[in-house]
Design brief:
Blueprint: E1 2-5, E2 8-11, H1 14-21, E3 33-36, E4 39-42, H2 43-51, H3 60-69, E5 73-75
Region (Disordered): 76-106
InterPro entries: SCO5918-like (IPR047719)
């Protein structure tokens, strides 16, 4: 499949991506990711490996689009943090204004 990533054309195949990512350890997933084989990789890491470009040169969306067209499963969020499962939220509030007990005159 022909796709354009960072303004450069690439001929990518599913087997070629699998071969390129074989033996590559996944980095910590903090955003968009793609499942390749049994591992989940950040899309920027996949883009860097398959294009040999600096990850700052392309967007995650370009890689997600290409991986989706090749039949890989892409994810928007990290696996460990499903929506709404963040645990208790602690808010700190001040009980009185700092440095005084009443309104400030201007």
């Amino acid at each position: 499949m022909r796709c354009v990533i960072a303004r450069y054309p690439f001929d990518l195949t599913r087997t070629g991506v699998l071969a390129s990512m074989k033996g590559v350890r996944p980095e910590l997933v903090t955003g968009a990711s793609v499942t390749i084989g049994r591992r989940r990789y950040p899309v920027k890491q996949v883009g860097q490996v398959i294009t040999r470009q600096d990850p700052r040169d392309f967007t995650a969306g370009e890689v997600v689009r290409a991986m989706t067209r090749l039949g890989f499963t892409c994810h928007d969020r990290p696996e460990d943090a499903p929506v709404g499962a963040g645990g208790p939220t602690v808010l700190r509030t001040a009980s009185a204004p700092l440095g005084g007990t009443g309104p400030v005159a201007v």
